Amino acid sequence: MAFVSTFPPLHCGIGEYTHFLVEKMSRQEAPIYVFSAHGTKAKERGRVISLPSFQPRAEDFSGLLEKIAEEGPFDVVHIQHEYGIFGKGEPFMEFLEGLRDHVSHIVLTLHTVIHSRNSELARYQQRMIDLSDAVFVHSTLGEYELWMQEVDLRKVYLVPHGTYVNRMRATKGDLAEVLGMEAEADGRFVITVPGFLRWDKGIMLLQVVSERITEEFPDTTIIVAGGFQAEGKELSMLREAVAEVDAGFKQVLFTRGFLARRDLFRLLAASDAILLPYREWPGHLGVSGILHLAMGARKPILASRVPRLVEYTEIFPELSFVEEDVKGLLGALRFLRKNYREVAHEVRRRLHAFLRRTNWDSTAKRHLEIYSSLS
């Protein structure tokens, strides 16, 4: 089998997803190829062979097709699709059409399902589905949106995003080492905001959120853990927003870029709570990878009510709030602070079945079962 995806060390949520997935799949005997984005080196680790083969958002994917033809044929080629990687134009569609000659089954994971309100992009999505043998989605929202668009659900498989179950035993005393800076956190309530710094992650609201939280709860330390993932005007606005918070709030710490995977696990394990103040693009349905890392840490999560976070907000609505509603966020935080021990215990209890169903072993097993059913 083979995957087409970004892959570490490139900083990308899709690449992290593929890393966790193939790590579990590699326990079988057959080799697994990952045709990854340029910017990394060819690498063979155990049964996983990663080969840089394409440029994200390229005008031509013929080089990727040639690489697959050279290494194939394959029983399954599984494409981890995201519009920010493969674009919205004809080059990717031509790649899908040409791929048929080199593989028995084409599998497509739609990390973003497009709502019918975007009619042009929904038609593009339908063309991708028509050229695939199986389509994976991560949430029921995506599954039934495709049904509303009259996609044959016999081709669609609901496969939950995998979850890394974090069993790290980190303490607040470890934070200075993890962050690489002075971080006196003993006796303080630590809230971590993990993930890329982007408009849709709520970073533009960080100043008012930080001001209101630290004003009401002065014993709080907020740690923003991630690097910028934006360009142009959006990047300039994000840098300005972060600089204002960094200069104005000593209780808010920034990691100055991406954390190594192990350090991120330790940070989440040492935190008292996790904050995901997401905003959303209307008409885009997906699932957050950072949400699954946060749920795997089994800590209380303050989460906005957007499609990407629905797996958590439907389990623990008491800690959810409407996007951009700072008053609602503060209400959820007050509830958490007042009842912390009971809430933390209840979070672990409610997440138990979810983690059993979505851990990466279960997710990898489900992938292999579906591949076998296609034969």
The main sheet comes to: 8 strands, mixed
Strand order of the largest sheet: 3-4-2-1-5-6-8-9
Look at the helices and sheets and give the structural class: alpha/beta
The CATH architecture category of the largest domain equals: 3-Layer(aba) Sandwich
Q: Number of DSSP strands?
A: 16
Distance between the termini: 13 Å
Q: Indicate the proportion of strand residues.
A: 15-25%
CATH class of the largest domain: Alpha Beta
**What's the domain count?**
2
Shape label: globular
What is the CA-based Rg, rounded?
21 Å
Mean pLDDT: 93
Quaternary status of these chains? Answer: single chain
**CATH homologous superfamily (4th level) name of the largest domain:** Glycogen Phosphorylase B
**CATH topology title of the largest domain:** Rossmann fold
Low-pLDDT stretches? none
Number of helices: 15
Helix content: 40-55%
Topology, pairings included?
Layout: E1 2-4, H1 13-25, E2 32-37, E3 43-45, E4 48-54, H2 62-71, E5 74-81, H3 83-86, H4 90-99, E6 103-110, E7 112-114, H5 119-130, E8 134-137, H6 140-148, E9 156-158, H7 175-179, E10 189-194, H8 206-216, E11 220-225, H9 232-248, E12 252-254, H10 261-270, E13 273-276, E14 284-286, H11 289-296, E15 301-304, H12 310-313, E16 320-321, H13 326-338, H14 340-358, H15 360-374
Parallel strand pairs: 1-2, 1-5, 2-4, 5-6, 6-8, 8-9, 10-11, 10-13, 11-12, 13-15, 15-16
Antiparallel strand pairs: 3-4, 7-14
Helix pairs in contact: 1-15, 2-4
Characterise this structure:
The chain is an alpha/beta fold. Helices cover about 45% and strands about 20% of the residues. The chain has 15 helices and 16 strands. It has an eight-stranded mixed sheet, sandwiched between helices. Strands 12-11-10-13-15-16 form a six-stranded parallel sheet, with helices on both faces. It has a two-stranded antiparallel sheet with strand order 7-14.
